[in-house]
Amino acid sequence: MNSSQRLDRTFAALADPTRRAILVRLASGEASVTELSKPFRMSQPAISKHLRVLEHAGLISRGREAQRRPRRLEPAPLAEADEWLERYREFWEGSFERLDALLEEMKTKDRKRTRKKG
Amino acid sequence: MNSSQRLDRTFAALADPTRRAILVRLASGEASVTELSKPFRMSQPAISKHLRVLEHAGLISRGREAQRRPRRLEPAPLAEADEWLERYREFWEGSFERLDALLEEMKTKDRKRTRKKG
Prior knowledge:
Arc Repressor Mutant, subunit A; 6 helices
């Protein structure tokens, strides 16, 4: 895999809320599939499918411990994706002074929508 | 769309080398579809399809100029994706001292592979 193919897989793997949540969980330490399944209202096979996508993208790896085979976050692909975005950070930080306000506005709208639903 | 749905669309849109290249091009200024098609060995309909994905994700917008309808980069979704990754930057910067070396190693391998092909 070259850098472009790795970015394809990393960004595709990140394009799902469950997979992003799994990565957030693993950032605080390794965990077994059972432990990873708990916070989600999802079957273990559904979680396993997401884990395969993450593993295929090199974002997680499996520990050697025979029974648990704990999953661990692998930081390199995330760092590479971050590096790609970093090149354009200048673009949005420099040219768009209103951006912070805009992001704040988007989040306030989200919160209002969430409150209405709840 | 809430923040999570926006991240889904942004990351999915970034999971393609042509779409990333289009964003890179637009970071240096707006461009028409014809201008965007030139560097790619791709038909205009194929480019238009990629542009629709980028537009759907809010990453680009269309200018008002009747004939050209130039596309423009919209930075907010990229900034939001960057913000998501930023939260985990600490994880890979702190815990993985070998990461820089690892990224360097991956890139050296890429270059060697490219040279072999060429």
